[in-house]
Amino acid sequence: MMKSGFPHLILGNKLVDAFLKCGSITDASKIFDEMPHRHIVTWNSMIASYIRHERSKEAISLYTRMVEEGVFPDEFTLSIVFKAFSDMGLLHGARIAHGRALVSGLDASNVFVASSLVDVYAKFGEMRDAHLVSDRIVGKDVVSFTALIVGYAQCGQDREALEVFTNMLKEGIKANEYTFSSILVTCGNLNLPINGKLIHNIIVKSGFESVIASQTSLLTMYSRCGLIDDSLEVFDGFLSPNQVTWTSLIVGLVQNGREETAFSKFRQMIIQSANPNSFTLSSVLRACSSIAMLEQGKQTHSIIMKFGLNRDKFTGAALIDFYGKCGIIQSAKLVFDRLSEFDAVPINSMIYSYAQNGCGYEAIELFHRMKDMVVEPNEVTIVSVLTACSNSGLIREGLQIFTSLKKKQNIELTRDHYACMVDLLARGGRLKEAEILIKQVKNPDVILWRTLLNACRIHGEIEMAKRATNRVLEIAPNDEGTHILLSNLYASTGDWSSVIGIKSTMREMKFKKNPAMSWIEVDRKIHTFMAGDDSNSRSKETHQMLERLIETVKKIGYVPDTRFVLQNMEEKEKEKSLYYHSEKLAIAFALCHTTDMASCIRLFKNLRVCGDCHSWIKYVSKAVGRDIVARDAKRFHHIRDGLCSCGDYW
Fold first, then answer.
1. Phi and psi for 603 in degrees, rounded to 5?
2. Which of 52, 270, 502, 544 stands 20 to 30 A from 567 (CA)?
3. CA–CA distance from 106 to each of 67, 96, 114, 153 (Å)?
4. What are the tens digits of pLDDT across the range 76-109?
């Protein structure tokens, strides 16, 4: 047959088709090249095969050759070749092919060609062109509408996607599983639970509730709308959840602050032999780091190693973040050093871990090493390294980095970067410089002025605090945090009449201050405490331990610092109120119930640790001979033998 020169066109076409069906694209290509004449079907088969095998460059080359040989593409050619252009990022080539579709009238008359055109323009973010193509389609169907909905959803234009979906229903066209999947995610992004529930009802009536794609999108929609119990209910209806559905549920639980449930579901996933991917594991680690579930995070690390993902940069970054947020910086560095490839993500995680744990010089050293690693710093990198300088009081070093970055044309400093510098200067007592820096920012926001206000509270600078407060309230009259900061500032200076005035305003505006809360892990269980808390089943034992600790530390130099009592009461009452702060209760509980007396006590607090508790914890560490690691809203405090890693600067 080879020697005959393919006397019959049909024989050559069938040979090419046979080789392609056997997966031998190379042999098919050889036969194709030797054919003196080729049918349009054979051209299309070869182009489609290249695209299926992710060889889009060769598909486009063959398409170009086809046109040059005078073979005009038909509807099948055009509907498949647009994907190749989007895969290769060749918008201009797609536009030329669009022109050929226009000439033949296929852009409007053939739904498959038009839908492929909408899809390719959407992937390039050219939604205006996608919509224009959609408007020209004669006899639109669910495929063409879905292509436009998916396009808008992928480009983050959720309201437009919802509008197209509404128009589709008005035209009496029934949605398919792909339409439902996209529009549910859109409802979640827009936080429209009512719309989402209405669409859920349509899905049930249409018989798509059991389709995996629809189920996963329902999970995502409910979790993004904050209806996590509805999300769990949907999940419970799954007969055999797969990796995607398990991961969607775990991500939703973490996003809604249900970290312990997320880890419980992760355990079930492993038991049911559903293998996690790097995204699943990163989400689980985020849950563990959020409330510092150290043992659970270590178990997750073991699973990561079992699946060979310990050198993956995404799970690596999540591990670094986890160990950093648990205050184990040595483990974070060990993970970082073992990564096989680097980009900004794991480097940022490592720099921020250094920042949280007061390792300012190490953070700066890694930041400067990025040049040798051929990795460009991004916005997050700059925030992390400036935060490291701020937490370690490295004003000179922070100013040098900030000044050098201002001179670089390829880096645009944001308000977040200026906020870091304001914090660095103001906490270091250079309040006037910080205020001048804010005025250099075009339209400074609430965060910048509130950062200055917080430093004014630390340094007792009343007049500047008033100026900062006025600026914040001009921008955001109902900003709760500013009223609380100003109230605390007046309380610390004994100006109780001003405190009463601010609290009265806060009551009128129905503000509610978040209560201080501390938690600690003992025997793999999280125990939570609030100031004056006696709700714990072992509260009597805890209070007795606390009283003994207070007596012990007083003998070695602890003096209650009543400046941190922001209420107008007698001195003895102030002292008593200090004794039952949440962090003190948590540490007393840990000392009652940990069997390993050489182990480190790990404490976590949702707000900044007060100065009196910081001093008390240092004395306790010295008295009982235990290391104590305390994480507050700002940073870590590593305390050993009466000394803290922060150097009393926080």
1. -115, 145
2. 544
3. 16, 14, 7, 26
4. 898 889 889 988 989 999 899 888 888 887 776 7
